[in-house]
Amino acid sequence: MRSAAGPLILRPKASAYAMARQELRRAVIAGGLETAAVAARLGLFQGAAGLGLIFMLHHVRPASETAFDPNALLSVTPEYLDAALARLKALGLRAVDLTELPETMCRGDPSDRVFAVTLDDGYRNNFEHALPVFEQHGVPFTVFTTSGFVERRFTLWWETAERLLRVSDNVTLDLGSGTQRFDVRRNAQKAALFQALLPLMTGPAQDVAIKALNLAARASGLDPIGITDELIMTEDDVRKLSQHPLARLEPHTVSHPSLAQVDRPRLIGEINESVERLRAWTGHQPSCFAYPYGDRRAAGRREFAAIQDSGLSLAVTTQPAVLQSKYAASPTALPRVSLNGLFQKSRYVDALVSGLPYGFAGLIRK
Ligand SMILES: [Zn+2]
């Protein structure tokens, strides 16, 4: 992996101003979704809708009542998934398997709009809470599993950080340039430290940063591998789910790194090993892939080419957009739209499908 550019310094901004800005941003997105939903219902700007879209989800589970919930955007309820699928069908979109999309884009028929559903990371709740909803609607779906999570070899830093901050009044981290201690008694301070961790955990020194976080968690009596075990499907779950006629299981790397930040041997290893593991567990040859984090900083031209070279035929980013014919030329860089836990209203589905919100400079990002 590439070495860190300098010492890793955390500067959380827990000011009232920073919090207000975050709230304002959320309100602007909700406002944009409301406006787009109305425009979509009125049939305005129909040309923006393209050929359909790929949805991205993570957790599907009952709502939790927690004041500090930094990963709330990654979690939707089974009821919302149910309402969203019903709404998509009512809007005339046809549910398809992910692998049908290249053909859809070549055909380019805007009167036959489609949607595919994907779920990242391989959470147990996909099996428990999402599968019954997909069964009820007869909708196929793809789960992208991280093989090192399934094998309990790697940890989910965002889940570790959430638990650590929830139970702590202060957090001490050693990111290689001495210990730094943070007061996190207030929820605003917890949220600010979580936000400050994000670029480190997905940056050039991501391995060092995650190791430091795991050390801090263990010092507070938490077990990061235990959290992985609690949240992620076992090999047996993966095998069983892969045998379901609606489910497709596909790889999402070994350790969930920001791939654009690792050297080439690691990049190739992350792809090939996760493909191999999944084939061993399911007996099925993987053909699709999801880039961890999936934004421009995490997946670019080198990563798109590496996926093509590895023999996989399709890969998804987290760049929000509707599907268009032009993407037929770049099947390893397909856009996806988040069914976001912060905006769980069925009328927002109209907005997402309309293609209108993506003009707001990708505000609906994961
Ligand atoms: Zn992921």
What are the defining features of this structure?
about 375 residues, alpha/beta, TIM Barrel, about 15% strand, disordered C terminus, binds zinc ion
Quick structural gist:
The chain is built from 13 helices and twelve strands. The protein has 366 residues and is α/β, with parallel strands linked by helices.
Tell me about this structure.
With 366 residues, the protein is an alpha/beta fold. The chain has one domain: Glycoside hydrolase/deacetylase (TIM Barrel). The chain is built from 13 helices and twelve strands. Strands 1, 4, 5, 6, 9 and 12 form a six-stranded parallel sheet that branches. The protein has a two-stranded parallel ribbon with strand order 2-3. The radius of gyration is 20 Å and the shape is globular. Bound molecules: zinc ion. Zinc ion (ZN) binds next to strand 5.
Q: Give the % helix.
A: 40-55%
Low confidence ranges: 1-5, 360-366
- Global mean pLDDT: 88
CATH superfamily: Glycoside hydrolase/deacetylase
Cα-to-Cα separation, first versus last residue: 25 Å
Q: Encode the helix/strand succession as letters.
A: HEEEHEHEHEHHEEHHHHEHEHEEH
Q: Mind summarizing the main beta sheet?
A: 6 strands, parallel
SS field, number of helical segments = 13
CATH classification class: Alpha Beta
> What oligomeric assembly is this protein in?
single chain
Shape: globular
- CATH fold name, please? TIM Barrel
Total individual domains: 1
